[in-house]
């Protein structure tokens, strides 16, 4: 009996000392984000969030800084051959993977070979296979990538958040599928644990190549679906950073002294595409009339609570080679006149679909309906649920019978370069089901410009092609450009160095927590 | 009794098979191509084709069905199209949080609801009844998501007493079970009251009273036992519903439960997960019904089974 009491006493004392000693305060940060991660493998992810989270442990050859400027990361420089086919990359020295493997050219080869091999069935296969013919190791710190055809935006593609360097040793050990559960990269944090229902945790990697970083010890990524719940978590201090913040709670959070709410510029463009192959939208005057009929400034206020601004071009500012045209003017009289000239003095009836069914999309479509009503265009609104969207729009097989008319949708150019802002949405070869030209727009001049820019070798030449393409598109008005969103995030004032970048991904390697 | 249970359990297999066939057909009738959804908005047609092969969706439908049935027979529900993890793991991880939350919600709401119901019935049309029924009507009409948000705002954000999300400690269970149980408590209260009011008008109650029994004895021993039968039926039904995971409460409190899994799965047309979940829910209902039937026998020994 006595001995047992002694043990208990000893245990109590031990606990007391543990509690009393101010343990080395570790800097633990919780990020509350909007949805569950689909995978940790950026080559097999199609959502921005999973790729943003994967930046904890992975880095690419190139990347983006917080303003979406392309910067070299694991590569130091590159050279392109005269014919634009061969890219020679010089790699950074002294970089180690979490498993101790040195980062060398064989890693570049292993990763690019993996994604271009159709047997691996990776979701990002299409992004690479179209252009990479082969990857070779020249020496330890030089890799050579040969393309099938010249493709000038290639380096931007290497900066895409899915092009990361996975440890070749780990790839061999875990294989193509299981690597998603055991990510090993060169990033500032090592993977610790992924409880799919609850959180994903990463911890400081001591051998990180940027000396003095990371400054925090752990990050716990918590997927929390509900907007209000995420807002509650940042108020209680259970999270230090949250994205996105809904417009409704932004003011509540702004009123708190310990929180910062940030509205960051984005490259998320919202537009109303019109099926140019179908009457009455085959008439350019009708399309322009619709663009004139919408008050974009009011739309930004009403549906986005002011956290958006009227679109000023075909590609949003911040995308490389985007041309600024100025917002499309709001002019009801002009819209009515154009409709009269087109032979629709009394307007017409049509369908208005939205690619999303959330509250903001609901407000947007109702606003559009009301605006179009003023020029006599009567619309029937349908908010498509994801499966319907795929069935009725994205995988519709025959362009001639495509049921889409007016379609409210958005696009974020994840490579940060004009090619990916124009080609998938407006090239004549990108009609669904291939890509997302939901306007079924085809203009040979635009197609030639896009092709020309791909083959161009100098920046100036590319800029010329893209300028011409964007100006032509603007006049043809296959879309009514609406707004560019702002990205709302909130963080504790103690937390610094975490940024939401314009493509809605995050930069956080500089993160620090004051205590 | 034992024979009866065995017989009922044997009846399980054909029911589940039927449910399996229906849910398989239903799921494949849903609009939307899961390969396209999984491949994501930026994918090219070749990529979609690769994803389709990867998910086994390029095979003919009967073949897919045989694979599904064969898998289920071997306790293998396939892999989630979305996360590529085994469906069994996905469900197992979420089952216990949902189960415990259901249990706690049921426990307090049944105790609370029945008490209110009995009190209301005994003091019918007097103030305890009015107060109780006002509570019950508010419980039914106040939407769960609003209640959850108000509770979280008050107890987590303003007072800072309770955590907002997660399921690690008993504290995490308080708000979600309160939110989830509110409607059930209200239903139980109204149900108990009406059933009790009926019973209290029966002849045997008058007899019990006239032979001079203490009023408490009349209500607890004679009334309660008989009033319990419909109440237990209702309890079983509610339990079954809650076990399916509450979508609203799970969303508000970020509860790692089955409701959200089902919503996510339907959203991404994650066939294997939808199929397994519907099978699980059917199984739960069948088992709960069986338990309820057996409970009748304990409550009222005059009920016999063959």
Describe this structure in words.
The complex is a heterodimer of chains A (515) and B (306). Chain A has 515 residues and is of the alpha+beta class. Helix content of chain A is 33%, strand content 23%. Chain A is built from 16 helices and 21 strands. In chain A, strands 1, 8, 9, 10, 11, 12, 13, 14, 15, 16 and 17 form an eleven-stranded mixed β-sheet that branches. In chain A, strands 4-5-7-6 form a four-stranded antiparallel β-sheet, covered by helices on one side. Chain A has a two-stranded antiparallel sheet with strand order 2-3. In chain A, strand 14, helix 12 and strand 15 (378-383) form a beta-alpha-beta unit. Chain A is globular. The two termini of chain A are 45 Å apart. Residues 12-23 of chain A have low confidence and may be disordered. Chain B is built from 14 helices and no strands. Chain B has helices spanning 2-10, 12-29, 34-39, 45-55, 61-73, 87-122, 127-141, 144-158, 170-200, 203-210, 215-243, 247-252, 258-267, 271-299. The longest helix of chain B has 36 residues, at 87-122. The chains are: A alpha+beta (515), B mainly alpha (306). Chains A and B meet through helix 4, helix 7 and helix 13 of A and helix 3, helix 4, helix 6, helix 8 and helix 13 of B.
